[in-house]
Amino acid sequence: MFFPTKLDQNYEFQFGHPFEELFFKTEENALINALNFKTENPKGVILYFHGNAGDLSRWGKITEYFVEKSYDILVMDYRTYGKSIGELSEAAFYKDAQFCYNYLLNHYTEDEITLYGRSLGTGIASYLAVENNPKQLILETPYYSIEDVAKSRFPIFPVKHLLKYKFPTYQFLPKADCPITIIHGTDDAVVPYDSSIKLRKLDIRNLDYITVKGGNHNNLVEFEEYHKAINRVLK
């Protein structure tokens, strides 16, 4: 499930926009590395939860797309990713995410905070949307649950009993009060399009579901439908 890459603690990030590198001690044996991009006169802030591969040297560049739209960004590396350390668990994902949200509350009001989840990060962002009152939730290539994805990938295995991680997005979204935008490509070979279609069929308030015809798991940014959707919700 997880494909982290490590970064030396002395690694120096380089990006095209101003940023601050942060370290959050979320519990005794955990240290979370994060990047905080700042813009002049921001429209708000996006708390971004990335996918299951890579580290902030990659994801920082990806989130600069939103900096260019005049949003501040906070993006963290999960435990064992990049410079972040600590024991990984589903509870740890949620705990560290809430820590980052609480950090933002020291600098922004909740109606200025947009939660954004991509792939693995969609379950985490969805959890936070229920536990808090953000302005909105944006999910790129989300899953019904990790179990649902695993069943599609490994249909002959009893994945329900083998999985340590659940990330039940389908349980979170119906409880969220904020506007929700889902963006998914029809040709996604990692998180099947059908997995988020199941989310669309739930009783979810304020849901805007965007289909990107021909889009796969990692190239939605190449499609006009994606840009139109992002420009609309981040206007």
Low-confidence spans: pLDDT under 50, at least 5 residues? none
Q: Give the overall pLDDT as a whole number.
A: 94
> Could you estimate the helical fraction of the residues in percent?
25-40%
What fraction of residues sit in β-strands?
A: 15-25%
Order of helices and strands: EEEEEHEHEHEHHHEHEH
What general outline do the C-alpha atoms trace?
globular
Class from helix and strand fractions: alpha/beta
Instruction: Describe the main β-sheet briefly.
Output: 8 strands, mixed
Helices, by number, come to 8
- The radius of gyration computed from the alpha-carbon positions, rounded to a whole number of angstroms, is 17 Å
Spatially, the strands of the biggest sheet line up as 2-3-6-4-7-8-9-10
Key terms:
single chain; alpha/beta
Please describe what this structure looks like.
There is one protein chain. This protein has 235 residues and is α/β, with parallel strands linked by helices. Helices cover 31% and strands 23% of the residues. The protein has eight helices and ten strands. It has helices at 56-67, 90-105, 120-131, 146-153, 159-162, 169-172, 193-200, 224-233, and strands spanning 3-4, 19-27, 30-37, 45-49, 53-54, 72-76, 113-118, 136-140, 180-185, 207-212. Strands 2-3-6-4-7-8-9-10 form an eight-stranded mixed sheet, sandwiched between helices. A two-stranded parallel sheet has the order 1-5. Helix 2 crosses helix 3 (120-131). The chain is globular, with a radius of gyration of 17 Å. The N and C termini lie far apart (34 Å).
